[in-house]
Design brief:
158 residues, alpha+beta
Length: 158
């Protein structure tokens, strides 16, 4: 009977080892999958951000050429006013930038600094996509010769 018990014990240890190996492989695959999902989320956020910036640049350029100077925006105004349809992640205007600090993945216009600000949602991964800043800031600036407006990126102080 003793040889049978030792054989049974070896089979049991082998099965435990197989299950542990299976769990390790599954956990590794889940880790790789989650990493890829996070990369895709960051890429989607970057593309959404770039789409809004491109829309804003086009709207500012069109406003500079088409509208009369009285109705047009001036330097430091909120360029989101030019869009017919605001992005779903636009919070509006804020008097105090501190109240919007927690607004990750959101656009808002800071009335005090006169800046349009976008705060990244995935900062760890987004540092390569958005530079080293936690937020991207834009200022509507007037270019002298024809008083044309441009949307200018401002260096963040974060």
């Amino acid at each position: 009977m003793k040889p049978k018990m030792a054989s049974h014990h070896r089979r049991w240890v082998l099965r435990v080892f197989e299950w542990a190996l299976l769990v390790a492989v599954v956990m590794l695959l889940i880790g790789v999958l989650l990493q890829k999902v996070e990369q895709l989320q960051t890429e989607a956020e970057r593309l959404s951000f770039e789409g809004v910036v491109n829309s804003l640049n086009a709207a500012v350029m069109l406003d500079s050429f088409v509208n009369n100077p009285i109705a047009a925006l001036s330097e430091g105004d909120n360029p989101m006013q030019l869009l017919d349809q605001l992005p779903s992640n636009y919070l509006g205007t804020w008097d105090d930038s501190d109240s919007a600090v927690q607004a990750d993945g959101q656009w808002y216009f800071d009335k005090v600094q006169r800046l349009l600000i976008y705060r990244t949602r995935k900062y760890r991964r987004a540092s390569s996509a958005f530079g080293d800043d936690r937020a991207r800031q834009f200022y509507l600036r007037e270019v002298p010769p024809k008083k044309q407006l441009i949307l200018e990126v401002v260096e963040s102080k974060n």
